[in-house]
Amino acid sequence: MNFDTLYHPYSSQRNTTIANKGMVATSQPLAAQAGLDILKKGGNAIDAAIATAATLTVVEPTSNGIGGDAFALVWTKGKLHGLNGSGPSPQDISVEAVKKLGYDEIPKFGWIPVTVPGAPRAWAELSERFGKLPLTDVLQPAIEYAENGFPLSPTLAKYWKSAVKKYTENLQGDEFKHWFDTFAPNGRAPEVGEVWKSPGHARTLKSIAETKAKSFYEGEIADQIDAFSKKHNGFLKKADLAAYKPEWVNPISVNYRGYDVWEIPPNGQGLIALMALNTMKHFESTSTNSLDFYHKQIESMKLAFEDGKKYITEEKHMSQTVEGLLSEEYAKSRSALIEEEAIEPEPGNPPKGGTVYLATADNEGNMVSFIQSNYMGFGSGLVVPETGISLQNRGHNFSLNEEDDNVLMGGKRTYHTIIPGFLTKDQKPVGPFGVMGGFMQPQGHMQVIMNTIDLSLNPQASLDAPRWQWVEGKKVLVEPNFPTHIAEALARKGHEIQVQLDRGAFGRGQIIWRDEENGTLYGGTESRTDGTIAAY
């Protein structure tokens, strides 16, 4: 790994941050600073990750909340651990029940797409197993911001205003009143620099901290969620909350040009990034931003996404195995489909067998890759009264087709878009990375890793490089600063290239790499948002 600030046309946004005692990288400066404060108080990288995540539910509610899910990859004491903090659908929901309500697909808003929130218990689980400080100390920064308020930053204000406009147009019914009371208290979105606070959010965070999340799943908060659901004929019940526990999982990986790239196994879509990289390694590495470099990336990702859409769901419900999808035999067969012209992708037959991201590191060698989300920005449009809990709408990804692997069932976890990533080499940590943003995430993971390994870019340059996003068929979006000559050449190969002016659509990521020789940390953060790195 080359840690130098290499010259590159896309490395001019800002310099890579370098420190050696501790580092927190995320999309919101106040949250990054909250995590750093916890490190300075004697907490480790795990404590810092939890503090940052909890603070993000307050200072970036447009992307995540207490009512969402979380995933983590934790490197500690020479081993990488995976935590799946995604919640299942309510036990009483079913395809038949949803269709009886008049739906042919899962709606985006309201109670039908609401699944059990996993984030609060994931925080408690991480704290209990790996943290050094009490959860009451770790959540204190988030509690203070919720109680006292904070001024909105520019990107946050932009997405908040957009959400209020969208929800005003789409949310009809008494059950949505509490969302507007909480997030548009003056009948509008807060402006840049305006202070917003949420006393209910603060009370909920205090309760989670004091009870190690038990009140959320088994106590007073669970009762409030249950009562709100019953009042509006929702499927979610207290029994669903009480039954939930995050799952410790074995991370999955592929070796890409000497580096091991790690993801959480399904129900997450990290498998897609690994399949695409596994296909790409069958082509010669290129050291330049060539046409061939981009063409093969896009084609590999298209093929991986088609497999992901067909097969990824909760792992025990998948008709294909992870091992089969990541096998060398299958990767070789997929790479053989890639030709000189853009193709229409189809799923293969392998051998049988709106989100916030943050990265933390400390001077003990602990490193965390953490991601959480409500999905589609604020989520379902439902806020539990007086709690600040904005409930997620993850169930929207379920299918109502009984033949699909990801068909809706009670108590099942759906195909999940949020994915943390981690990089190692020779069984030693390089560090955490991630790119948030719905179905852009595996595409962002692939591009950041190839920028790092194939192009030898430093963390900041790897993130700043212009991105592409495959949408469907041959349609590919590119950023405004994407090289025009490459875009035109891709179009000549049959790709349907469209310039997307909103750079936020291409994901927002962070990276922390660690130099194994001296422990120095190198961090990059996203130029597409208010991202920052706090370090010392």
TrEMBL record:
Q: Does the keyword Secreted apply?
A: no
Q: Which UniProt keywords apply?
A: Transferase
Xref: Pfam families: G_glu_transpept
In terms of domain of life, where is this protein from? Answer: Bacteria
A Gene Ontology molecular function term for this protein is:
transferase activity
SUPFAM superfamilies annotated for this entry? N-terminal nucleophile aminohydrolases (Ntn hydrolases)
- Matching InterPro entries, A to Z? GGT-like_enzyme, GGT_ssub_C, Ntn_hydrolases_N
Name listed for the protein in its UniProt record: Gamma-glutamyltransferase
Say which species the protein is native to. Salinibacillus xinjiangensis
